[in-house]
């Protein structure tokens, strides 16, 4: 596809960004527009999937026909068949008159089924029939009707997984997935984040008649390091909040981090072991480190106690030595009766105090351990923070905070 066509479409629909995957998705939409093939658009919530069926419709021979966008997830299960396919008078209690559904109204045009993964199984069967031969039945009617409509679908549901669990029909999935278009997540679009943020802040500056927000280099790095679970929608909300609430128009990393919520941690850092599913949760990496370290040292502590008891026993009884086995049995070992000289141990502190002191010493070294682990991960990944965070199994925002806290260059 010509680059000029892609630029024209980007300008027409206000699409901002130069990411390779985004350009490929736009290119695919333009190429498939001239056909009647069914298109399945996938991607996370908030990435802008709704633009692509419009691109397909306006660049197709159906562009003068009607275009309907239907959010399947927002329609109750009991009424969705009526909404899509219509009903006859008396089909159910509230059916006081006939109603044409979207498939009838969109005849000759395009219908966009958003969140198609939320359709109930009975409706999936009806949709499959429309896809195969253009036929459908109104609710309460036995008369077969025909429609000539282009179907474009979108979902943020993992449809292959839904097929495996029996929540989505396999034959319908393959029928819908004739031409797949995957819209990339914002965190995978690199410097597009800065372009979008700049566009949003310019819009809000004009809307509220205020000076535009500008980011310093550290703030840009913070935006790039964040994973943006809400994608473009979340970025727009952050841009609006910062534009309205901040008096200083030059925004630093510390300021921008206040508008980026901490993401929930589903796993413990790989460096310190994975969660065992025991239902225990931790509020910080420090608590995780303490817990794992103390768990690992529990057996060593027990051994220290046994050695202390053995030493005390030696000082009281020189005729035998008591060895504690794993089964906690005492095995007397009788020594030859000969003159012996016993030197009583002189610990500088009680045994329990020695153990406590060692715990304190280990706890005090946790900062160094964590700092060393982060530094090594950055070195292995040549300074790429996103890859280092993935290796440590922590969020990029947490890694950014730790780097700043420890002063790691």
Summarize the structure in words.
Strand 10 (320-324) and strand 11 (330-334) form a beta hairpin. This protein has 409 residues and is an alpha/beta fold. Strands 2-3-6-1-7 form a five-stranded parallel beta sheet, covered by helices on one side. Strands 4-5 form a two-stranded antiparallel ribbon. It is built from 17 helices and eleven strands. The chain has helices spanning 3-13, 20-33, 51-58, 80-85, 102-105, 121-133, 159-164, 170-176, 192-208, 217-225, 231-245, 253-257, 285-316, 351-364, 366-380, 385-392, 396-406; strands at residues 39-42, 67-71, 110-114, 135-137, 144-146, 150-155, 179-182, 214-215, 250-251, 320-324, 330-334.
Instruction: Give me the Rg, rounded.
Output: 33 Å
Strand order of the largest sheet: 2-3-6-1-7
Shape: extended
**SSE order, one letter for each helix or strand:** HHEHEHHEHEEEHHEHEHHEHHEEHHHH
């Amino acid at each position: 596809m010509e680059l000029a066509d892609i630029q024209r479409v980007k300008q027409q629909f206000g699409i901002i960004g130069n990411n390779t995957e985004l350009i490929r998705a736009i290119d695919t939409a333009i190429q498939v527009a001239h056909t009647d093939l069914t298109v399945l658009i996938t991607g996370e919530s908030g990435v802008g999937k709704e633009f692509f069926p419009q691109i397909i419709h306006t660049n197709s021979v159906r562009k003068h026909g009607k275009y309907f966008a239907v959010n399947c997830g927002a329609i109750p299960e009991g009424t969705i068949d009526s909404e899509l396919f219509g009903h006859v008078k008396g089909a159910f209690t509230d059916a006081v008159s006939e109603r044409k559904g979207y498939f009838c109204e969109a005849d000759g045009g395009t219908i966009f089924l958003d969140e198609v993964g939320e359709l109930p199984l009975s409706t999936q069967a009806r949709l499959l029939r429309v896809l195969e031969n253009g036929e459908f039945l109104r609710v309460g009617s036995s008369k077969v009707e025909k429609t000539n409509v282009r179907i474009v679908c979108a979902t943020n549901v993992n449809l292959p997984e839904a097929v495996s669990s029996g929540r989505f029909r396999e034959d319908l999935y393959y029928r819908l997935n004739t031409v797949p278009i995957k819209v990339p997540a914002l965190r995978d679009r690199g410097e597009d984040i800065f372009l979008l943020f700049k566009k949003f802040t310019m819009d809000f500056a004009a809307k509220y008649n205020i000076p535009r927000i500008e980011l310093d280099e550290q703030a840009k790095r913070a935006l790039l390091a964040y994973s943006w679970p809400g994608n473009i929608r979340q970025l727009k909300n952050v841009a609006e909040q910062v534009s309205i609430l901040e008096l200083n128009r030059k925004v630093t990393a510390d300021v921008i981090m206040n508008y980026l919520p901490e993401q929930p941690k589903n796993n413990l850092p790989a460096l310190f072991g994975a969660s065992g599913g025991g239902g225990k949760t931790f509020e910080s990496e420090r608590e995780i480190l303490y817990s794992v370290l103390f768990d690992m040292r529990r057996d060593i502590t027990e051994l220290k106690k046994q050695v202390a008891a053995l030493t005390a026993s030696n000082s009281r009884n020189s005729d035998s030595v008591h060895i504690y086995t794993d089964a906690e049995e005492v095995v007397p070992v009788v020594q030859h009766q000969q003159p012996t000289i016993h030197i009583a141990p002189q610990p500088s502190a009680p045994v329990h105090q020695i153990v406590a002191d060692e715990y304190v010493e280990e706890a005090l070294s946790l900062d160094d351990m964590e700092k060393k682990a982060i530094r090594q991960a950055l070195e292995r990944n040549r300074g790429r923070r996103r890859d280092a965070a993935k290796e440590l199994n922590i969020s990029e925002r947490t890694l950014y905070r730790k780097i700043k806290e420890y002063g790691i260059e």
